[in-house]
Fold each of these.
Amino acid sequence: MTAAVATDGLGKRYGRRWALSDCTLEIPSGRVTGLVGKNGAGKSTLLNLAAGLLRPTTGTIEVCGGRPASDVAQLAKLGFVAQDTPTYPGLSVRDHLRLGARLNPGWDDALAWSRIERLGLDPGQRAGRLSGGQRAQLALALGLAKRPELLILDEPVASLDPFARREFLQLLMEAVAEQELSVLLSSHVVSDLERVCDHVVVLVDSQVRLAGEVETLLETHHRLTGPRRATRALPRDQRVVTERHTDRQTTLVVRTGGVVLDPSWTVTELSLEDLVLSYMDRPSSGEATPALEVLR
Amino acid sequence: MIWLTWRQFRVQALTALIAAAALAAVLAMTGRRIADLARRGAEQLYDLLTSTDVSLFWAGLIVVAGVPAVLGAFWGAPLVARELESGTHRLAWTQSVTRTRWLVTKVAVTALAAALTAGLVTLAVTWWSHPLDGIAGSTRGSLPGHLTPVSFAMRGVVPVAYAVFAVTLGVTLGAVLRRPIPAMALTLVLYVAVQVAVPLWVRPHLVAPTGATIAISKDTLDSISLDPSSGTESITVHTADRGDWILSNDTLDASGHLAPLPGWLNQCSASPPTNVQGAVQAQPVDPCLARLTAQGYTQRVVYQPAGSFWTIQWAETGLYLVASVLLAAFCVWWVRDRLS
């Protein structure tokens, strides 16, 4: 099965600033992948490159087996819900659905209308007068009714209140279950992704810091708490992600394929948020700690 | 794609249609009287005009001159720039339509609508004003002919090409600047600059001009004027057809070289020290002109004959359309390769 997105040495430069550099990653198809990173880490750049809105400065990117936006067939494979979910303020909800129907050969009108009806949106309402949550739902309906192979969402819930956030993600997940499509969505809030993603990619300073299946990552990462000690004393198969020392106590986040046997450690499980944050907080790897890649 | 273009454009298109219809109504109401007057007697037509008629004549020129500029700024400049500013290009460019087709359709529909609008307005204004083009009063006053730089750009087919050019210019500047308001302002500035530059330096050479040597006499004399700073006098004459567009008007001496007018002319014509312009009828000038002619002075005139009107119209239309196509090609390249 081809990857939904595959990049190799991908970089994008604006003037003298690299928004994304040397990014090599593979996003599996048929999954919901969360792209996490702080603001300015290069998430939007990566997603816009995948959507074909940007062209790479260096390296290559393939989406669903082809160069992004290279032709109509390639454009049809991808649904894109851009950041801030742009819609035409002067056009009504109905006009937006007509726009989708006119511009997309694979348009599923029944699907689009059923989503609009379920949300209770007035088809005659201008998009400019919708709430942020409604506008995001309209943009999502446009993206889904295109019947894409891959749906990309760039910070879809960033501007929504917690309730609209939850509702949006829930409806997204329902649609994913019905349509069997790959999803790639970004957020700088990890808790948003925790509920919906089964694969995660962490970008730090425009570099891939961590990529892997959520379940595997959670199984192989542990928080160890115990009396203060040096980290050199750890077994070979335990790699320290972060360490924190007080006068008497040491807290580590470690990755290991095996089991932590040392009884002096108190081992606790990590949430995805804790795990991702521990990678994001880690200072840029001065020593040779390559980006961790855990695939299947 | 045409549907989307029209859906986004229809309010502007209808506004233009209503404005054009209102203008046509005003012209239709007042134009019939002009047409009647012209049919009855063209001889004294100018003397029969009211000041309202003359104002309308000038207003017509201003409207036709303004339409392409306004369309370029308000239809062209925001076309891409507003999408870029509001981020909606990310919605439009990720539908199953290539960016090139999206842009080409939008520019084509908008340029076509602008061409139609400019064409209709020009047609209405030309119908109203053509009996008045180039007429002169029996004693004083005149209106510019349709080949003079004052009127040429507001008659015939060139306004259509100007509208197409202004729209593509606006679209291109909008795509480059990415902000609608600066793009609108720069579109106006550049469009006006082009409209000034073309009649000054390009239009006279579109068709090879005609040259003629004309004897200086009471019948051909247009004006004698004195440049108060240098104290030199100069003469202009006119060609047989008042509709000709005179490009240069130089005095030659007996040997056929460019020469200043002799110093005695100043006293001879006994003119006041300030400029004397317009038709010179004063009797004392006659002997001075005869003396000039006797000394071998003639007037060298380079002009575009009135009959070249349509040749120049089509040449300039072609020029602007070629410029529009080049701009559009640049714009497609920019949007496809540089905005990514």
Amino acid sequence: MKKYLFPLLRIDVSRKRGVSLVETIIALLILSIALIAIAGVPIMTTKLALSSTRHEQATTIGMRELNALEADSRDIIPDRTIATGFNTFTARSSKQNDTGRVTVVWQGGSLVLERPLSEFSSVTRRASRE
Amino acid sequence: MRVRRAFTLVELLIAIVITGFVMSAVITLFFSVFKNYELHQDISSAKQRGHIALALIQPFVLNAGLGLPPDNASDPQAFQRAFVDIPPLEPLFPAQQNQRFSSFVQLAEIQSSGEMTVSAASEASALWLVYSISSGTGVDKGFEPRRGVVLDIPIRGTLDLQHVAAYTPDTPNPLKSWVVFPSATTPLLVQNIGSGGTVRIMRFLSNLDDKVLPLDEMRFVRAVKIFVSGTSLIVNRLDGSSGQTVADGIAGMWCRFDQNERVLTVYILARADTRREPGVQGALDGWPAAADVRWPRDAAYRYAVVSRSWRIRN
């Protein structure tokens, strides 16, 4: 009659060998390599959140410049630099072929916003009451 | 007797030490992952709150100035003259000079006493707007209001008499007696509303000369004061009621209005949902430098800044 450590699993105690130290160390090494990979996750998400915040700020700035462009009667509009605390954005606006275009550039990315815009868009309201 | 092999004490100790190192790394890692999760949850909930606040402001901004006189450089008094002469309009032009609207977009500053005073600067902490809302009624034919001339105009459509009332000197809310037509830029004082079904004769009095085009819609004039008090975004409709809290957890508002471009930018400083340990918020990104000192905040929350720009087309 054989003795079993766990009768259900039928593991033979007399045949079972232990795990050697070397095997343990190798297992731990593999585990730590996996952990190093996981450690990158919070760093990646923070980077991603930062870049999405920058994108959001750039979009807000671009929308604002596109609105301002509508009122601008100049042919050539000088670049505008906007600082929002951590980041600096440069907005380039142009009005050509009935299209208003704003390019927002920041360190690590850029964004282009366009909308149909007549060259007469700056004359949106009668200058004086008739 | 069979020899049984096992770990020696030294082997066990080494294994325990190594496991200890690895487990401390694992726990630190998980701790930082959870902290990171908390950070992003806070940022997204704060931003969401800010966007809700902006969405609540947006309808007023989009209708601001519609049908109202422009405040251009050639005629800076046009807005006040359009309302002021006959009769005096208390909600927009009270006796105190520093409480008067000079345009349909009026920036105001909240004083340390809590009182708001108008600001001539291009940026300030409170936003006052005069806007117009749809009435569902309009005119078939065009007409030409003249200064001081009374006109009887047929208005087609079902008029909701909750929103408009003929002017009397003791009316509780004189704003309810003003209407505009978007094709013109002159508000008209309603002096009488005829009885009737889908066509009513309305008696208008104008302060300025103008021209209303055929098939134009009649709109009701309304005004609001939007500001942040404590941690609430408050909208005060100038109809005799007091200010109402429309959003909570808003720590600050900052408005910028460019007179030439006519672009209004509103910054909202919104709070996250969950209280953390004090000092959890570091430097703020995107909050205008001029507005920095103005908000007493609960330092145990995280905050986010959201902003939006609208061009005011009247």
Amino acid sequence: MNGDAAQLAGGFVTVDRTLEQEFEARLKESSTLAFRVAYSVLRQKQDAEDVAQEAFVRAYRSFARLRDRERFRAWLVRITWRLALDRRRGDKRRTAREDASDAPEAVVGAEADLVARERALLLWQAIDALPEKLRVAIVLASLEGHDVDEVARLLALPLGTVKSRLFAARQKLRESLQWMQNETAKR
Amino acid sequence: MDAERNREALTDPSLGRDLQALLAIEPSPEFVARVRTRVASEPEPRARWLSWTFAGVVAAAAAVVVIAVYLAGPREIASLAQMARHAQEGPAAATPNVQARPHTQPTVAPDLSGTVSQATSRQMASSQRVTGERAGSQPASIQPASNHLLSAEVVLDPRETAALRALIRGAADGRVDLAPVLQASTPTAMDLPPITEIAIPPIVITPLAEEGVRQ
């Protein structure tokens, strides 16, 4: 009896260790992805880390059914996007922080000149103006060299749907940027 | 110069590069460590998985019990219906009317049991209609139970029976008001008189008559 119990407990421990190891591997390979997805919505590094962390915690709770790599990454992207949107909507201090920062941090560090900052701001505004379906597609396609297939897997959408959304997103971005540049030139 | 750069920025490759540069931001070095710490404070995912498994097993067991009760239920209901029918037919044939008997003899209470058995048989009959043919397929196993029911007769004093009937009729007609009785609280225990010594008089045995005297 005791031997059976010990064997059973040993089996659970093995399952636990395997789960922990698999989750650790997913965390290592997907942490930047989750952070960047959150950052594309929030534009604040600290907020993006908080949201990505929360997404990982939720993923850990449901990890028994998210062990497949592709499934995990797709689920993580979706939950991170949702959490970031919720945070953005709910955070009343966001506007004040944006005013204080005045520009995305990446641009501040990488391209400090004024033209680059202005262009980045215009680009963010154009991205914000996109419908959500197009926005998430173009953001994912712009992340760490994701191709269309990867975006389709992450969004669990057919390849053709993703291609048409990316095409529409780029077109709208060009139109928005053109309009903004014209407005800036008038001033 | 700026116009040229802006025009170039609107081409697809340039737009793609700008977007990549916009999102090429790394989390802080301690981010993964913070996630690990936070995850470590969470309960193990195995426990949740096991709890769902346990809940599933409990639900399956409950379903099996419900199905077993459902399958076994109609037979019992059918047997009860048979018993009620026999009880209704048996005592009525044996003792049709209490009032025809003399009041000095204890008698079976056929009307009360008949009333109960009629009500029971009505309920059982409706259940029997639901169970259908299943009820009719089990008569052999029911027979001993119905015989046992018939042999268990309740003997009541006819005066109590008459009084109870009168009470029921009075309550039904409104001549007897049972409200005070129903609202009465539980009577308190009767106070017993103090225990006193019981004086038992000595037994006196009177001697027999003188010897030789015969009557």
